[in-house]
Amino acid sequence: MHTVHTGETPDVLLQLLSPEGVRLADADLDPWVADVTGADLAALYQDMVVVRRIDAEATALQRQGELGLWPPLLGQEAAQIGSARALRADDFVFSSYRENAVAWCRGVAPTDILRVWRGTAQSGWDPLVHKMATPSIIIGAQTLHATGWAMGARFDGADSVAVAYFGDGATSEGDVNEALVFAASFQAPVVFFCQNNHWAISEPVGLQARASIAGRAPGFGIPSLRIDGNDILAVTAATRQALHRARTGGGPTFIEAVTYRMGPHTTADDPTRYRPAAELEEWATKDPILRLGRLLDSLGLFTPELESEAQARADATAAELRAGCIGLPDPEPLTVLANVYATPHAGVDRQRAEYAAYLASYDLTGGKA
Amino acid sequence: MTIETVRSSPAPSANGATPVPLTETTTLTLAKAINAGLRQAMLDDPKVVLLGEDIGALGGVFRVTSDLLAEFGPNRVVDTPLAESAIIGTAVGLAYRGYRPVCEIQFDGFIFPGFDQIVSQVARFHYRTQGAVRMPITIRVPFGGGIGAAEHHSESPEAYFTHTSGLRVVAVSNPQDAYSLIQKAIASDDPVLYFEPKRRYHVAGPVSPQPGAALESARVVAAGTDVTLLAYGALVSTATDAALAAADEGISIEVIDLRSLSPIDYGTVEASVRKTGRLVVTHEAARSGGLGGEIIAEVTERCFDYLEAAPVRVTGFDIPYPPAKLESHHLPDLDRMLDGVDRVLGRRR
């Protein structure tokens, strides 16, 4: 039993749900999911089924040449859905590029998630509308943005929380370590949510960390938890606990969600070159969706209706995604020079005028300029 | 730490702080002029916060933020841990929340740990988000040499930033511009690199409370007819002295203070070159890939037919910044500027 998760035992992997779907007790985490109903579990299950389908459909779209690239989240559904569903609408997410299930939870339309990967825009949605920043491709950079946002929340006297999503690879970056220093110094209301999916492209987590990643946080003065990231109840409980601490002036929390990237780093990657098949097979038995399904089954809630409803939602979302993706218009040529600055800039304005004149002179505008 | 209330009126200056708002033209050093501009900006907008190392109780290593902590409190004058990437990166998060952060980078040579956040994040958010997210961040950088300092304390990194689209870049040369342009930089909805000529910090001059020049305008410091001499930052003073010296020889130099390095006010530059037909550009930064080459290329494209001679650069050498006892060889001084003037006039090769 774990009574205190403030960094004293960051090597312990906390679970509320075994891979077999058996509910485990944890005195510290249990209260944070005491109000989770069967309907809530069913909704989380549906979320996970839908985002797995989004992931599969996007991978298919990439294979068919409709997307330039796609970073799958396969295997990380519980870590992302469990944490993101714990957030309030006024919290703010700063993520990496793999948090597509988080974007789903923040209300981003599936088609909008694909814009970046189809290459029609550098940001698929308005960050201020969804309270989720444009995913950071530079590894770990967003953890500083989250910390700054949280510092501002503290200055404002608000009880909103910033959540930084990043991976095990990012923990080697200077920015992540600087973010931990600043968050601790200013007691910023930020949750550092590290998905340790075991692989940073081809580099195993052991190359980034000789000891547990969660174990580093107490050295920064930040309490941490190491949880089973494929256990959606543990993820929900840990995130709620961390959010509560942040909202009530307790400062930052570091969560290491231990999960597994079942797919490639991106569709351009070939994990068979570096990853043993046995490891994949072992993790397949810890699948987050199967696990929650088993719990629901044990509770008598895994009904044919639930399954068919989840499948229907997944199918509908996939169809919307496919049609939306293929229907995304190419941006008009002169948008290449739009929005470089918020206010007029003579240098860029001149280049825009010159390029417009060039396009017009050769009738290259496609009738759009 | 408590949440600070925002002052609506200026504090008494019993602590020796610069009176703000300025009601009449006042003589201030360049450092105090920036201080006064920061104070005014903080009074005008409660979302203006300062971030940096040693900017609180100490007032910054150059005292530019003196007394601001006492007046505005620790939530608006934030002494940060020693991490430049975090100073810039947390400013991004603050900007996401509607703040207007003003980051102080302690010395020019210390900006590079924050370089990635500046060029990969700050500069790009507006473009990346198709205009949804603005980054009204001002990054103050004491720059340039001539103070006999150790390595990393005398650099001129401005070209890295003028090469980065999405950033505005300003270099001030005198107290008046320092006061006006820091406020305009902070008010800008774009990120601004604001370079401060550290060896001119203690030179005093008149500062008027009038709004002053636009952020992107160059200034004709001294009118002339024979040669256009472009400078910015600390070298504006040297260029002005060079023009006085040349006048003794009957050579009329038009000195232009660029002030804005991105964008460059080519209207003012072109008008001058069309008049003089001869252009010299001077900067402390290394020659190769420096602003001088870019300006000369642009001017040549725009007014080739008006040029009487190939434009000339008078710049720092293509070297790492040298030891203090050698920096006088590296930095363009009055004599090297006059040598450049002689070359553009065909009086020397």
TrEMBL record, chain A:
Which lineage ranks, top first, belong to the organism behind this chain? Answer: Bacteria, Bacillati, Actinomycetota, Actinomycetes, Micrococcales
Instruction: Tell me the superkingdom of the source.
Output: Bacteria
**Keywords linked to the UniProt accession:** Oxidoreductase, Pyruvate, Thiamine pyrophosphate
Q: Which GO terms describe its molecular function?
A: magnesium ion binding; oxidoreductase activity, acting on the aldehyde or oxo group of donors, disulfide as acceptor
What cofactors are annotated for this protein?
A: thiamine diphosphate
Q: Give the organism the record lists.
A: Cryobacterium cheniae
Q: Which Pfam families match?
A: E1_dh
Q: Which GO terms describe its biological process?
A: branched-chain amino acid catabolic process
Does the keyword section mention Nucleotide-binding? Answer: no
UniProt cross-references to PANTHER family, sorted A to Z: 2-OXOISOVALERATE DEHYDROGENASE SUBUNIT ALPHA, MITOCHONDRIAL (PTHR43380)
Q: Could you confirm whether the keyword Hydrolase appears in this record?
A: no
* Protein name, entry field: Pyruvate dehydrogenase (Acetyl-transferring) E1 component subunit alpha
Q: Which residues form the Dehydrogenase E1 component domain?
A: 47-317
UniProtKB/TrEMBL annotation, chain B:
GO terms for MF: magnesium ion binding; oxidoreductase activity
Q: Where is this region: Disordered?
A: 1-20
User: Which cofactor(s) are needed, names only?
Assistant: thiamine diphosphate
Origin, by domain of life? Bacteria
Q: Which SUPFAM superfamilies match?
A: Thiamin diphosphate-binding fold (THDP-binding), TK C-terminal domain-like
Any idea where the Transketolase-like pyrimidine-binding domain is?
28-203
Presence of keyword rRNA processing: no
Q: Which InterPro entries match?
A: THDP-binding (IPR029061), Transketo_C/PFOR_II (IPR009014), Transketolase-like_Pyr-bd (IPR005475), Transketolase_C (IPR033248)
Keyword terms: Oxidoreductase, Thiamine pyrophosphate
Query: Is Translocase one of the keywords UniProt gives this record?
Result: no
Supply the name of the protein.
Alpha-ketoacid dehydrogenase subunit beta
Q: Which organism is it from?
A: Cryobacterium cheniae
